[in-house]
Amino acid sequence: MKTFVTGATGFIGASIVRELLREGREVRALVRSGADTSNLAGLDVEQWQGDLRDRAGLLRGLKGCDVLYHAAADYRLWTRDPSEMYRINVDGTAAILEAALENGLSRVVYTSSVGTLGNPGDGTPGTEQTPVTMADMVGHYKKSKFLAERIAEGFVGRGLPLVIVNPSTPIGPLDIKPTPTGRIIVDFLNRKMPAYLDTGLNIIAVEECARGHILAEERGRIGGKYILGNTNLTLRAIFGLLAEITGIPAPRVRLPYTPILLAAYVNEGLAAITGKEPLIPLAGVQMAAKFMYFDSSMAVAELGLPQTSVKDALERAVEWFRANGYA
């Protein structure tokens, strides 16, 4: 069985590739020209040069494949040109799923995000059924992923055997970019995190998240949607665990939200002029206004999603960042 993976050079995608190889699967990975392929180094993977914006190329790339994992996404909290994010996350999703439909693949797993789901925001965990609209989306990343998920649902209606997974906040090795959450860990390790906002996240080991993708392929309901998460923690509690792991003191100062929001607006305005990424991304601060807590019990019950210690996952993340020169 040959499996096609998009986003294979990235954080979640590279972990999916490793899970597939452990199962003895033959993997073809979509790789953009000039991409950093260090996450695929030494792996027995066919690297297919292509682009999500090239529909004809995607049709060729999926020839001979049985399964598609579409994990590629433009994940940034700020971009000078939002249209590029929509071209990758929305148009690219439509293109790869159209190619999958035309090639008659037996199963597709689409990687969405908990950011597309409803979230009460008061500490009550959101579920796959929590009501949500486009108006609830903060920032272009969430908006683009929300639109892409609607496209994925539309392909189910056209007969594509697709399952949607919504990862929460993965942590662990291979976070080469790093992701915004990985950046928080790196800044903590480099003692650049003197204070914190009163917010919260659902975190999961990236290896568990990858395993959840495989389980969704094997056991997920066609058209089903599954939150791949584990433990809900305040940001303060996450820093407390990092302090236990590293011996670095956790920040004790809690920042008031309104002044940080105003600073983010100023930073965003300067970024629009200079083209440089803002020190305080507005979308990140706006997201922090809600506790991003979620309930992954459906994935646990229906897929058998593993739930291991998130402290161990944080330890693996710390070890990897230190070993690779981030801290």
Low-confidence stretches: none
The level-1 CATH class of the domain at 2-176 and 203-232 and 293-310: Alpha Beta
What is the percentage of strand-forming residues?
15-25%
Overall pLDDT confidence: 93
Output the radius of gyration: 19 Å
CATH topology-level fold name of the domain at 2-176 and 203-232 and 293-310:
Rossmann fold
Query: Using DSSP, what is the number of strands?
Result: 12
Shape: globular
Summarize the biggest pleated sheet.
7 strands, parallel
The span between the termini is 40 Å
Question: How many helices?
Answer: 11
CATH architecture of the domain at 2-176 and 203-232 and 293-310: 3-Layer(aba) Sandwich
Please write the string of helix (H) and strand (E) elements.
Answer: EHEEHEHEHEEHEEHEEHEHHHH
Q: How would you describe the overall organization of this protein?
A:
There is one protein chain. The longest helix has 22 residues, at 82-103. Helix 1 (11-22) packs across helix 6 (206-219). This protein has helices at 11-22, 55-61, 82-103, 139-157, 180-189, 206-219, 235-246, 257-274, 282-287, 297-303, 310-323, and strands at residues 2-6, 26-31, 46-49, 67-70, 107-111, 162-167, 169-171, 195-196, 200-205, 225-228, 231-234, 253-254. Strand 4 (67-70), helix 3 (82-103) and strand 5 (107-111) form a beta-alpha-beta unit. It has eleven helices and twelve strands. The N and C termini lie far apart (40 Å). It is globular. The chain is 43% helix and 16% strand. The chain has a domain at 2-176 and 203-232 and 293-310: NAD(P)-binding Rossmann-like Domain (Rossmann fold), CATH 3.40.50. A seven-stranded parallel β-sheet has the order 3-2-1-4-5-6-10, sandwiched between helices. A three-stranded mixed β-sheet has the order 7-9-11. It has 327 residues and is an alpha/beta fold.
